[in-house]
Amino acid sequence: MLVVVLLLVAGTATFVVATVRQSFPQTTGTIEVPGLDQRVTVYRDGHGIPQIYAQTSADLFRAQGYVDAQDRFFQMDLQRRYTSGRLAELLGESGLASDKLVRTLGWRRVAERELPMLEPATRQYLQAYADGVNAYLRGAGKPASISLEYVLISRTNSSFRIEDWTPVDSLSWLKAMAWDLRGDYPDELTRARLAATVPPQQVAQLYPEYPSAAHRTILGDSDWTAPGQGTGGTAGASSAGSVVPAALLAGPSVHRQIAGVQDALAALPSFFGRGSDVGSNAWVVSGALTSTGKPLLANDPHLNLTVPSIWSQVGLHCRTVSAACPFDVAGFSFAGMPGVIIGHNARIAWGFSNLGPDVTDFYLESIGEDDTYTYGGERKPLDTRTEVIKVAGESDVTIVVRSTGHGPVLSDVVPDVAAAGQRVPVGGIPQNNPYALSMAWTGLTPTRVADAVFGFDTAKNWSEFRTAARSFAIPAQNLIYADVDGHIGYQAPGLIPLRRSSTPGTPPGFWPAPGWLPEYDWKGYVPFEQLPWVLDPREGFIVAANQQVTLAAGPFLTSEWDYGYRAQRIRELLSQSASRKLTPADMTAFQNDVYNPFAKELTPILVATSVDDFTAQARALLTNWQFTQPADKSREASAASYFNAVWAHLLDNTFGDELPRGAMPDGGSRWMTVMADLLKDPRNAWWDDKRTPGVIEGRDEILRKSMVDAHLDLVQHLGKDPATWQWGRLHPLTLHHPVMSQDSVPAVVRSIFEIGTAGAPGGPSIVNAFGWNAAATSATGVDRFAVVRGPSMRMVVDLADLDASTWVVGGGRSGHPFQGSYGDQVEAWLAGETFSWPFSTAAVAAGQVGELTLTPSSDQ
For the whole prediction, is pTM greater than 0.85? Predict the structure, then answer.
């Protein structure tokens, strides 16, 4: 297919071969790199993963920048254009909506303010990395020698230019990570939209309390007590009995603003992922419970599955580790960011799962035509700035960004919404203008996250790790820890706002707040000393899979936890093995567990539901089903197909009549908890289908209809015989390229970059979390079951023998199609396999298949 495309572009087979290969990196021999002080060695293994050895820290990061640019510069360039609001310069009008929103949020402006705040050493590492990237760019010359994507893009946009890399380009990417992994804001807007049409008590039922009696929190009752506080309180207030703020009942203006902003934010590209399945499995086990006698640490972040992968595997080694060159670390980094984000050094290992605190709040703002807004009984001037967006092939677009003291006015990004609405009173206060919507977000506060990354990379013990964690402000993550001395630990870091609820009976941030009242402003951030942590808990293991952190009294973190199905399953797997010592192989096996805990709750009710003779054959699959979801041709896979189809239709038949577009259930853990509660109440108002006037349905009618609908759906798409249904056929996985997978790109070109598979196991709220979105399509069809996110990488670190650790990534090291390491790990990753992860110099050298020497330029 590549031949067809490039022949159309250039017309000769010779050009095809030259074009494909000219951007491949040189991985052996010697290259002169301007700026290096001394020789650097880059070993690559059979998967193209580089292990870099240097005499100085500066040379180490120059080499990392050079190698990252060799492998993935297009990805790096795309990321910086996205985070700078400059996609339209490359992609034309298709990037304009994203650019408007990112410019309004001002991600790069924040990164520019962060750079001078960082430690001098961190700034030096960032600059050295940028120097290495730029040395590669100057050596490569024209864009066609850098990536195939540039060749294809140049056919429609010959005006783009590749600019030098800067330290701010690296810092800006951290803003995209923080944006995608923030918590709560989609639900805050959804609740506000529902307030217009759904009774408050029904809205409350969609946001149940965390089921702590069934699903353990990360920290147990005795693990942690907030300084100055007792135990037995709650770290996440309940939403039960919530009251809708008067402001949200004011009229259609507010609701149109909220709906427009929600749609605009949903249209923003997501590199890391969004939705209820964005999270991670992370756990660590004490050596007292392991076969090795030392801790085992496992991590698999659940993010978007793209090609190239979000993650870039690398090893960074000072030849002589000292205070001047303190790095001996390996793990997973981001292309465009120096250092290692998740991994281990010679002393400690660490992993992440998303903490997901509520770090965004929306404010209704009363803005006048004179660019002033009401605050504290006064009119204050808006902060304004002008942004000029260049659009390939089109005229420049100019936008005016307006901000209140809370943050940018996001409703300005949606002109048709901003122009709509009525001038109505709100909360009894006469107003002369429709309401705008502004947003406060911790990501708009300059922080020192880059300091934390290098702090983790060089930490030698728990105390140094916690010191680094103080700077890990956004996105707030559950940090799990282990060291060679046998300690295991957990730390919740991050900027967590201190604020009050805008409505009695609800937690902070549950509803948008009236921006004209100062009492709803943020009052600072939770001190680091008051954030939950534990070292060496008595239980001997820690599971952090996005569930609620603790029941102990302490700072409010969020009311929007993952509801703990994955976390509880991991705990059960670890506990079931307590009669024997846990092995590294157990950790990998647990990461690939496909047991569906929610199915155990719902299936008995489905089996007991009467259906017609036609559907009874499908229902019979659920009898004696063991609730697993493999992708093979087994009876378990057939039952999984039917169960998931029923689940999708059950959600649509229950909620599709009342919830608006953008608020439909995605089928994740919250909806499982909601449904578990509704199943106990057969006449609940949610069961009635408003689309059938004159008929009031109950639970059993909706269950029966969903089972019939699911059977018809699967017969149409998988065949008449339920025994032949396969979850793998229903649950396909494609690794998409962020640009070349767009609908506007011809299918023949998409096929060059995309990697498709036969199908994936697992599903939402399953440990092997290849998630799908129940709200993705209409009530019929199977597209909704396609994988939308999953375990972007897997690692198991053996603190007894670091060379015995294992890793795999959902993709490959290379960003160049047709190069050997482009997607070469996908087959093993999907099958649940991992690869050896050498760390010691001897192990790295033994496994290397290519040695590249980078030397200082002869003329410097």
Answer: yes
> Closest Cα partner for 629 from 642, 619, 617?
642
| Strand 360-366 versus strand 513-514 pairing type | parallel
Strand partners, 794: 808
User: Got the DSSP string for 231-252?
Assistant: SS--SS---TT----GGGGS-H
- Residues 137, 146: contact at Cβ < 8 Å? yes
Phi then psi for 836, rounded to 5 degrees? Answer: -60, 140
What distance, in Å, lies between the first and last C-alpha atoms of the chain?
Answer: 45
Assess contact for 521 and 203: CB atoms under 8 A: no
- What CA–CA distance (Å, rounded) separates 557 from 184? 10
Helix axes 635-655, 597-607, angle to 10 degrees: 80
Which DSSP state fits 408?
B
Q: Reduced to 3 DSSP states, what percent helix, strand and coil does the chain have, rounded to the nearest 5? A: 35, 20, 45
Closest CA to 546 of 759, 765, 350, 699: 765
d(CA 436, CA 458): 46
Q: List the beta bridge partners of residue 378.
A: 375
Instruction: Please check whether residue 173 is in contact with residue 474, taking contact to mean a CB–CB distance below 8 angstroms.
Output: no
Contact 823, 755 (CB under 8 A): yes
Query: Cis link prior to 308 (omega < 30° from 0)?
Result: yes
Could you give the CA distance from residue 713 to residue 702 in angstroms, rounded to a whole number? 16
Query: What percent of the chain is modeled with pLDDT above 70?
Result: 89
Total Cβ atoms within 10 A of residue 536: 14
> Long-range contacts of range 84-90, CB-CB < 8 Å, 24 or more positions apart?
84/108, 84/169, 84/172, 85/387, 85/389, 86/389, 86/390, 87/269, 88/389, 88/390, 88/391, 88/392, 88/397, 89/160, 89/390, 89/391, 89/392, 90/153, 90/157, 90/160, 90/392
CA angle, residues 372, 377, 380, in degrees to nearest 5: 25
Query: Under 8 Å CB-to-CB from 195, ≥6 apart: which residues?
Result: 203, 244, 248, 249, 255, 511
Q: Using the 8-state DSSP alphabet, how is residue 682 labeled?
A: T
The pLDDT value given to residue 490? 98
Q: How confident is the model at residue 273 (pLDDT cuts 50, 70, 90)?
A: low
* SS3 label, residue 531: coil
- Please calculate the CA angle 299-303-306 and round it to the nearest 5 degrees: 120
Question: Could you tell me if residue 652 is left (phi over 0), alpha (psi between -120 and 50 degrees) or otherwise beta?
Answer: alpha
pLDDT digits (tens, 9 = 90+) for 745-797: 888 888 999 999 879 999 999 999 999 999 875 444 457 899 999 999 999 99
Q: Which residues contact 820 (CB under 8 A, 6 or more apart)?
A: 48, 814
Q: In the predicted model, what is the mean pLDDT of the chain?
A: 89
Would residue 546 be called left, alpha or beta, if left means φ above 0 and alpha means ψ between -120 and 50 degrees?
Answer: left
Contact 605, 703 (CB under 8 A): yes
Nearest C-alpha neighbor of 596 from the set 734, 722, 791, 771: 771
Q: CA-CA-CA-CA torsion for 518, 524, 526, 528, nearest 10 degrees?
A: 180
Which residue has tokens 């006698």?
293
Please report, as a single letter, which amino acid is at residue 419.
A
Q: Tokens 């799962």: give the residue.
A: 353
What are the tens digits of pLDDT across the range 398-435? 999 999 999 999 888 865 444 433 333 344 444 445 68
Cα separation, 430 vs 363, in Å, equals: 18
- List the alpha helices (DSSP H) in 327-482: 415-418, 449-458, 462-469
- CB burial of 197-210 (b: ≥16 within 10 Å; e: otherwise) equals ebebeebbbbbbbb
Question: Which residues are paired to 402 by β-bridges?
Answer: 384
Rounded to whole angstroms, how far apart are CA atoms 216 and 549?
Answer: 9
Q: Angle at CA 815, nearest 5°, toward 390 and 90?
A: 10
Spatial distance between the Cα atoms of 630 and 257, rounded to a whole number of angstroms: 44
Query: Which helix (H) or strand (E) covers residue 730, if one does?
Result: helix 727-730
Question: What is the spatial distance between Cα 49 and Cα 315, in angstroms, rounded to a whole number?
Answer: 8
Phi, psi of 854 (to 5 degrees): -100, 125
Whether residue 699 is predicted with pLDDT greater than 90 in this model: the reply is: yes
Q: Identify the residue whose tokens are 């992370």.
A: 282
Cα(595)–Cα(758) distance, rounded to whole angstroms? 20
